[in-house]
Structures are given as C-alpha cells and as structure tokens.
Amino acid sequence: MIVVTTDSVPGYEVEEVLGFVVGNVVRSKHLGKDIAAAFKTLAGGEIRSYTEMLTEARNIAIQRMIDEAEKLGADAVLAVRLGSSSVMSGAAEIVAYGTAVKLKKI
C-alpha cells in the first residue's frame, strides 16, 4: 500500500477514486505513568511515556486507515493527514485520513 501526503504518486496516474478512508484510536496511559508525567512537568523536558503513547496511537490509526483502504481494493491512499485531540486528561485521539485510490502505472 502506497501512503502519501501528496495528491499524486510519481510514475502513476489515478485510475479510480474509491473514497474517503479513516482510522482512529483513543489511547491513554495508566495511572502510574500519569503520576510520573505530572512530576516531569514540574522539572520540564520530554515526557517520554506520552511520546511513546502518541507514537503507538499514530501507528495504529494509520494501520486502521490502510485496512479500510484495502477493503475497498485500493493501491494507495493519497492526501493523508493526521489529527489529534485531547479526549480527557491523559487520553488522546489520533486520526489518520485520506483518499483511497486505484493507481495505473504511466
């Protein structure tokens, strides 16, 4: 599966637009990690447990988007975008979305 943020893929043309695809996930860390993160904010610096949580969430959201595109028979997902929002303290939603297409080699 080709996944790009651009509207096209060099060497290919869009043969068919299959539709909008999206993948999302809401992730949180457990209470112990939240307490450790709260102390880290006092000293400053990167909160690695949250960085790891968001990286995992992003990967899951992208894979879910790809899975949806595969169900449509897509070769690629174009114009991919990522978004995030805080759902509650210590929990974040990551969403990945784009346009599923069939490509033809030029």
Give a structural overview.
This protein has helices at residues 31-43, 48-71, and strands at residues 2-3, 12-28, 76-88, 91-105. With 106 residues, the protein is α+β, with helices and mostly antiparallel strands. The protein has a four-stranded mixed β-sheet with strand order 1-3-4-2.
Chart the SSEs and their pairings:
Blueprint lengths: L1 E2 L8 E17 L2 H13 L4 H24 L4 E13 L2 E15 L1
Parallel strand pairs: 1-3
Antiparallel strand pairs: 2-4, 3-4
Keywords:
35% helix, 106 residues, Translation Initiation Factor IF3, four-stranded mixed β-sheet, alpha+beta
Q: Which architecture does the CATH hierarchy give at level 2?
A: 2-Layer Sandwich
Radius of gyration: 17 Å
Euclidean distance between termini CA atoms:
18 Å
Low-confidence stretches: none
Order of helices and strands: EEHHEE
Helical region count?
Answer: 2
Largest sheet properties: 4 strands, mixed
* Full CATH superfamily name: Hypothetical protein apc22750. Chain B
Share of helix, binned: 25-40%
